[in-house]
Design goal:
The complex is a heterodimer. Chain A has 13 helices and 2 strands; from the N terminus they run H-H-H-E-E-H-H-H-H-H-H-H-H-H-H. Chain A is mainly α. Chain A starts with a helix and ends with a helix. By secondary structure, chain B is an all-alpha fold. Chain B has a single domain, classed as MetI-like (MetI-like fold, Orthogonal Bundle), CATH 1.10.3720. In chain B, strand 1 and strand 2 form a beta hairpin. Chain B is globular, with a radius of gyration of 24 Å. The chains are: A mainly alpha, B mainly alpha.
């Protein structure tokens, strides 16, 4: 009797756990469904050639999202230029060079940066970084793509550091010992053995860091000046810019449901979703390849 | 021969020295701004903190008074997020770690989780607006915002919990089952208790992120200003991060004092969460017997 009741209970619990396990698929499909449902009418509201034109001025019916896409790309590229070298070098330093006590100080600090809400970074951007850049480069305004890039670099760094560091820690110590025993210096070991062995993990870290920067909203909205200008030259870095995320965040609150503007904002959401999806697919392919190679070595 | 080898080594050692110096400079350049930010905020923010600032309602168009409704709003949102995401996330992690077979379906689930983790927060906001606010007609409310934040938090909780569960040695499960326990009894009595520190870490980190987010609640539950506290899950609410955004960009003539004070409260929150995580981790490491 008891066994039977336990059995029934067990079945219910198992079922609930299975359903929870599948829930992630459901959520991804729901998100996709809503984005497509609300965003695809934009393609009927507005001719495609206009949608991908270079003028974003919704009040007068100009819905060209090209400046926004390029704005996101400029800021992301700028952020990568900051975050990739600093992130990777810091990760190598923490994992391979720093003494134990320094590791114990640096790791929580990087984690703290990861936990800082993006509005706090945006606030510091407005108050500290942008006046500094304005005065240094003699700009009319400090709210530029460069300001956004620097701060977004700060957002990508914790991701890059922690995942790269994991990858480096996963390199078996025997590799390092073997290299040192052959008479190589620690420096040669790091460059010749450890970093190459962790290469795919580090690459994945970079991809995921970049993915975070494309999707970051509040910081860029606060510090990039929000002007939808088509970036055409290198100078764009020193001018205000508008990203896809900031456009959605600043305009969605004021549009009427089911207006063309509303549909276009959801359409931008689809574009963003596709960008991050692409980044994630590349990143997970890198990790899948790594697993296969590890299996080959072990077998 | 001997000489060239020796000079080669000297050369290598010199390169090593230069290389290490460069790495150290970069690492310090990464960490120093973080310390500077913390000191800067505490230095300028702590004078603004008073009991009144924390516990009073804003007045004079938010240019005076306190930030109590924003604090309590963020508290409600965090609790709401926890109610939905913690049980669901832990159950999903149990499925992946204890039940799922190594097949196509599991692969798809993992792809879905990676995907959820990568979706921009503002896109979660769009989704929450479409599903919870408009279709399910919750309006811009604590409920809609909490649900949106929950889905965003799920991947963090699932992946950290799964890692914690997988770290429990297989022998624990084998022994438990061999003593006649069912699979669920084994999970509930043996595996989960061992994994609790790891799970807690994931939950705290996930909720910390949710509490600090602004973009997902912009159109699903955040209010610019409310004269009174929310009194049901269907009310909109003020929230700390959104409040900081509002007072630093949307309200002209905002006293800088109040801005610094708000940042200080947010920073204190993040610091406390991080300290909790560190304590849980180090205590678990000290107590662990396997």
């Amino acid at each position: 009797m008891i066994a039977k009741r336990t059995n029934f209970f067990e079945k219910i619990i198992t079922l609930m756990i299975q359903l929870s396990g599948f829930s992630s698929i459901l959520f991804v499909l729901l998100i996709l469904f809503f984005l497509l449902g609300e965003g695809s009418p934009a393609l009927f509201d507005i001719p495609i050639s206009e949608l991908f034109s270079d003028r974003w001025y919704p009040i007068e019916g100009y819905y060209g999202i090209l400046p926004l896409i390029l704005g996101s790309l400029v800021v992301t590229l700028g952020a990568s230029l900051v975050a990739v070298p600093f992130g990777i070098l810091t990760a190598v330093f923490i994992a391979e060079i720093a003494p134990k006590w320094l590791q114990e100080i640096m790791k929580p600090l990087v984690e703290l940066l990861a936990g800082l809400p993006s509005v706090v970074l945006g606030f510091l951007g407005i108050l500290v970084v942008s006046p500094f850049l304005r005065d240094t480069f003699n700009l009319p305004t400090g709210l530029t793509a460069l300001t956004g890039s620097l701060l977004l670099g700060g957002i990508a760094i914790p991701t890059i550091v922690s995942i790269s560091e994991d990858a480096l820690n996963n390199v078996p110590d025997t590799y390092r010992h073997g290299s040192l025993a052959l008479g190589l210096t620690r420096w040669q070991t790091i460059w010749g053995v450890t970093v190459p062995a962790a290469k795919s993990g580090i690459l994945m870290a970079v991809m995921l860091g970049v993915g975070r920067t494309i999707g970051e909203t509040m910081t860029v909205m606060m510090v990039t000046g929000n002007a939808p200008i088509l970036p055409t030259s290198f100078n764009a870095l020193f001018m205000p810019i508008r990203t896809m995320t900031a456009t959605i965040a600043s305009e969605m609150g004021e549009v009427a449901t089911n207006s063309p503007h509303y549909h276009v904002l959801f359409f931008i959401g689809i574009v963003l979703f596709l960008f991050t999806l692409a980044v994630n697919i590349v990143a997970s392919n890198i990790s899948a390849r790594k697993i296969k190679r590890a299996e080959r070595i072990l077998s | 021969m001997q000489n060239t080898r020796k000079s080669n080594l000297t050369k290598q050692l010199r390169i090593e020295k230069i290389g290490f110096t460069i790495f150290t400079i970069f690492a310090i350049a990464t960490v120093l701004p973080i310390i500077a930010v913390v000191i800067y905020i505490i230095y300028l923010g702590s004078p603004a903190i008073s009991w009144e600032f924390i516990s009073a309602m804003p007045s004079d168009g938010m240019r005076a008074g306190g930030i109590w409704p924003a604090i309590i709003g963020t508290f409600y949102l965090t609790i709401g997020t926890a109610i939905f995401s913690v049980p669901l996330g832990i159950a999903a992690a149990i499925y992946l770690s204890e039940y799922a077979a190594a097949n196509r379906l599991t692969q798809i689930i993992r792809m879905a989780i990676i995907n959820l983790a990568g979706i921009p927060s503002v896109v979660y906001g769009l989704f929450g607006l479409g599903l919870f606010v408009i279709l399910l007609n919750f309006g811009t409310s604590i409920l809609a915002a909490s649900l949106t934040l929950s889905i965003m938090t799920l991947p963090v909780i699932i992946s950290t919990t799964e890692e914690a569960l997988r770290a429990v040695p297989q022998s624990f499960r084998v022994v438990s089952v061999s003593l006649g326990a069912t699979k669920w009894q084994t999970i509930w009595r043996v595996v989960l208790p061992q994994a609790i520190p790891g799970i807690l870490t994931g939950v705290v980190l996930g909720l910390e992120r949710a509490a600090g987010e602004t973009a997902p609640i912009l159109f699903t539950g955040a209010a610019f200003f409310l004269p009174r506290l929310p009194n049901s899950p269907f009310d909109a609410t003020m929230a700390l991060p959104y409040h900081l955004f509002v007072i630093s960009t949307q309200v002209p003539g905002m006293p800088i004092q109040i801005q610094y004070g708000t940042v200080m409260v947010l920073l204190a929150f993040v610091l406390i969460m991080n300290i909790i995580v560190t304590v849980i981790r180090s205590r678990a490491r000290a107590k662990r017997q396997w």
